[in-house]
Design goal:
- This is Efflux RND transporter periplasmic adaptor subunit.
- Pfam families: Beta-barrel_RND_2, BSH_CusB, CzcB_C, DUF3347, HMBD.
- Keywords: Membrane, Transmembrane, Transmembrane helix, Transport.
- Among the domains are: 89 residues, Efflux pump adaptor protein, beta barrel domain (Elongation Factor Tu (Ef-tu), domain 3), CATH 2.40.30.170; 128 residues, RNA polymerase II/Efflux pump adaptor protein, barrel-sandwich hybrid domain (OB fold (Dihydrolipoamide Acetyltransferase, E2P)), CATH 2.40.50.100; 142 residues, no CATH class.
- 26% of the residues lie in helices and 28% in strands.
- It has 13 helices and 28 strands.
Length: 609
């Protein structure tokens, strides 16, 4: 079982300072998790000046501490203090909140004007290289017999047109050659015209029989010229290519029509992609696609030659075959390829993907009432497709609305702090204080509902399986490298992480998770700074956390949250023990953050939920 700790409480901690909360007449001594290495006996400082209206300052990590001296530092973590500003919001307004100018400056919000117009959707396809079916050549036994000798006895061998492949022993072939020799001898004797015509007919029939048994015209002429029959025949390569299948061994008996070898043209390949049923309308025959070879990140392009004749009943995908001319490229069938298709969408209302707060089926945005106002109101949205860095808005907004595109989480946390309805606590009742994840506070129900929704979404379909193998260990190695500020170690761990992710047979409904885990694949050695590595780690963490919430980790893991990561937007990560070590700041703020949730190792098989 899991030990749940509400995400909402963590959000409250962070925003209670940055936003600027109403100064309280009393303060709370909050229990701390040992992951912070805090002094648990630290007295909370409360000044009577709160009642007198004097400006107070507090710590963004420990809002229970108050001081009237702006030059003080937090006695718990040593961080600089920020002002606590009162809000002019009406407490009877359940959907709106208003901030003073000072608080707005601290929030560092960004807004976006809602507009209607064209947009672009990115469709991501994953597939692999395979031989073009049209270039395959089957080498069959034209007559029954025994394999006396294999001139090409391993797969992967390259042969030229006319090279000997197989020597076959066949009694039937020997008899047919004897008939040819006798028929030819008959044609060389003096005979009446009608009998000479009959002999010629018999000779033509003998030639045709040998041709049907696999002999070439030159081989037939050689038999006539030598006058000797042989019980062996050599099968030659009809064209050049690679031996991709060898179905017999020396000494095997074969029947007429059995495939002995299979050849393929190594320069004619297909990139075979899986297209989900919901996206069928966007791909058609003749369309040109650009894609990348995962092993080398090489950019290629090709034309859609065909679509699979049917949708796979279990995976709900359809094959898209793109013709590839290898040419000077070094391509190997079986290599992973990824394609990104830009799809133009006309006349659609969009908002930045960073604007909505998503939990389960709910989407909430905060709208600025006016450009010069500090008042914001919450809106519930119906959102549609993800269009690049935007979401399609189906209802809930109008053109010209000013939505908060950066900082919405901070506003939401302020509402939680005041016990009013918010995204994470729709019914209100948020807790005040700094909880390090040791208790279950108000707002946990919303998080629990979101968790259940994620569980359902990531359930492995019947007939499919999911084995993560060493993926968690490589993820933890990246975490360890970042908290240690070791870029070289991260690059090595990232390469192993990408390889492990690509080696997993992902169920068809985990396409998005696989994309998150593969962010930056092939570029780890090009990442030149810890900041870039941490941005990629943040994306990888989203996929790993989704797997953890759905019970697919087979190791213990602890979910941590740092509210100050990425310019105070906050970020989560997993680590293998509960002693918090922050990968987003490393040595500069190693202990910044809170433990949110504990995932115990799942002992059950996930071979088909």
């Amino acid at each position: 079982m899991k030990t749940k700790n509400p995400v909402t409480v963590i959000a409250v901690i962070f925003i209670s300072i940055v936003v600027g909360i109403t100064a309280l007449g009393v303060s709370f001594q909050t229990p701390h998790d040992d992951s912070h290495d805090h002094d648990h006996n630290q007295e909370t400082v409360v000044s009577q000046s709160a009642e007198e209206g004097e400006q107070q300052y507090t710590c963004s990590m420990h809002p229970s501490f108050r001081s009237t001296d702006p030059n003080d530092r937090c006695p718990i973590c040593g961080m600089e203090l920020v002002p606590v500003a009162s809000s002019a919001a009406r407490e009877d307004d359940l959907e709106r909140i208003e901030f003073t100018g000072r608080s707005l400056a601290l929030l560092d919000l960004q807004t976006h004007v809602v507009q209607r117009g064209p947009a672009t959707r990115q469709l991501r396809l994953i597939g692999s290289l395979d031989f073009d079916e049209r270039s395959l050549t089957a080498i069959s036994a034209w007559t029954g017999g025994r394999i006396e000798h294999l001139h090409v006895n391993y797969t992967g061998a390259y042969v030229e047109a006319g090279d000997p492949l197989v020597e076959l022993y066949s009694p039937e072939l020997y008899v047919a050659q004897q008939e040819l020799i006798q028929a030819y001898a008959q044609t060389q004797r003096e005979a009446p015209a009608f009998l000479a015509d009959s002999n010629q007919t018999t000779l033509r029939a003998a030639r045709e029989r040998l041709r049907l048994l696999g002999l070439s015209g030159s081989q037939i002429e050689a038999i006539i010229e030598s006058g000797e029959a042989s019980d062996r025949v050599t099968i030659h390569a009809p064209s050049e290519g690679l031996v991709v299948n060898r179905n017999v061994a020396q000494g095997d008996y074969v029947n007429t029509g059995d495939t002995v070898l299979e050849l393929a043209d190594q320069d004619r390949l297909w990139a075979v992609f899986e297209l989900f049923e919901r996206d069928l309308q966007y791909i058609e025959v003749g369309q040109e696609l650009e894609f990348k070879l995962q092993s080398s990140n090489e950019q290629m392009q090709g034309v859609v030659e065909s679509l699979g004749p049917r949708i796979d009943a279990e995976r709900r995908t359809r094959e898209v075959r793109v013709a590839v001319n290898a040419g000077e490229h070094s391509l190997t069938p079986g290599s992973f390829v990824r394609a990104t298709v830009d799809i133009d969408v006309d006349d659609v209302m969009t908002i930045p993907a960073s604007a909505p707060l998503l939990t389960g089926d709910r989407a909430v945005v905060y709208v600025r009432v006016a450009a010069d106002s500090g008042e914001f109101e919450a809106r519930n949205l119906d959102i549609g497709r993800r269009l690049g860095d935007s979401y399609e808005v189906l209802s809930g907004l109008e053109e010209g609305d000013l939505v908060v595109s950066r900082g919405a989480f901070r506003i939401d946390s302020e509402l939680q702090l005041r016990g009013r309805p918010s995204m994470m606590a729709p019914q209100g009742g948020g807790a005040v204080g700094h909880d390090h994840g040791n208790g279950q506070g108000n707002g946990a129900m919303a998080e629990e509902e979101a968790t259940h929704a994620e569980h359902e979404e990531l359930t492995v379909p019947a007939g499919e399986s999911l084995q993560l193998n060493d993926l968690p260990q490589h993820y933890f190695a990246m975490w360890d490298a970042l908290q240690s500020d070791d870029l070289d170690a991260w690059q090595e761990a990232a390469e192993q992480f990408y390889e492990a992710a690509d080696g997993i047979s992902w169920p068809h409904n985990m396409h998005d998770v696989h994309d998150e885990l593969s962010a930056g694949a092939g570029h780890a050695h090009h990442v030149g700074s810890l900041d870039q590595a941490r941005e990629l780690f943040h994306v990888h963490s989203q996929g790993m956390i989704a797997l953890a919430r759905a019970d697919y980790l087979e190791v213990d893991a602890y979910l941590m949250f740092c509210p100050m990561a990425f310019d105070n937007q906050g970020a989560y990560w997993l680590q293998p023990d509960n002693r918090l070590l922050n990968p987003y700041f490393g040595g500069s703020m190693l202990r910044c953050g809170d433990r949110v949730e504990t995932f115990e190792a799942n002992q059950n098989s996930h071979g088909g939920h």
